[in-house]
Amino acid sequence: MDTSIAKTLNGWGYRHAWFADIAKFFAKDAVFLVVLVAVVAFLAAGRYGSIEARRGAVSAAFALAIGLLVAHFLSGAVDRSRPFVSHPDIHLLISHGKDAGFPSDHATGAFAIAVALLLRNRLAGTVALVLGVLIAVARVVVGAHYPTDVIGGAVLGAAIAIALYAPVLRRPLDALADWASALYTRLLPAPARS
User: What single-letter DSSP state applies at residue 4?
Assistant: First the structure.
């Protein structure tokens, strides 16, 4: 089933250039948009800013770092070949190394950020989550991952974000976010008076 879905999505991308172009963008570059959502959530000021969004952004940074670290060790332990390596009829639509593919780093990072934001700020979290889903699907379309690679990454990233939301971990992260937020607020120019 995993290989069948990978072949179907990859085949569609291979036969339709417009679909492949969209998938290539999301597979390679859209992860930066997810990071940008977290950065904007922290930097937003005035009526668009909130302490909860800033707390979510700080939690997202920690979830991202921990998620990628765990994924690195898990990838080495599982050592699963990527679909374009194991199946000559799956076309690699982007340049990519032949390293192990489970779990997907892109999905791990995107979902770690998205869920951390979603727990604190619904709008930023939803935008990041939609981008995360598109990234995960695109990684399969371009031949870099099996569906279970991206599902595994998504579950790993989400689980770490949820773990960081536990009160014992959330309190020190909130304190750090509040400190960073106060520092950032002091650096902002004073609002103009009318």
Answer: H
